[in-house]
Amino acid sequence: MFRPNAGAARLLTLAAGVAVAEGIARATGLDPELKWPNDVHCQGRKLAGILAERGTDHVVLGFGINVLQAVYPPDVRARATSLELELGRSVDRALVLAECLAALAARYGDLNEGRDGAVMAAWRMRAASMLGRRVEWDVAGASQRGLAERVDDDGALLVRTESGLVRVISGEVRWIP
User: Fold this and answer.
1) Containing domain of residue 166, as a range?
2) Which residues of 31-51 are buried (b: 16+ CB within 10 A; e: fewer)?
């Protein structure tokens, strides 16, 4: 559980994504990417996810990493991967966890000390291949589509639609091939 200041709270999920990707990279040598707002990908498939639940004065943060080589159903196989599948070998789970927690502590420190720019720069670097792609999301039961342009300094996804630039602040965004 975290008790971030107001400024840190708004970017904690993105900072956690950066931290998990950095921890995985340090522990395995892989170079994970980020998908807005809370997924870690490798080769275009989901490798890890982050979930943050906000209370009045705290945030409970969790993350899950697909570690073991699994037999995924065909519909999941195209969207998911694991550390062992990507590396072709077993991994030291304790090392992965330790590196992720160390990176999380550092990125949380960045937020609490006002270094939001460092977190956002790291996030944008790891999300570069995901931006510029067509996306779809739901608003009030209706699907909207556009081109993901960038993530602003508050962590919102900016999407170019036929009617202009839309600021997506939460929800599931689906990347369209």
Assistant:
1) 134-175
2) ebbbbbbbbbbbeebbbbbbe
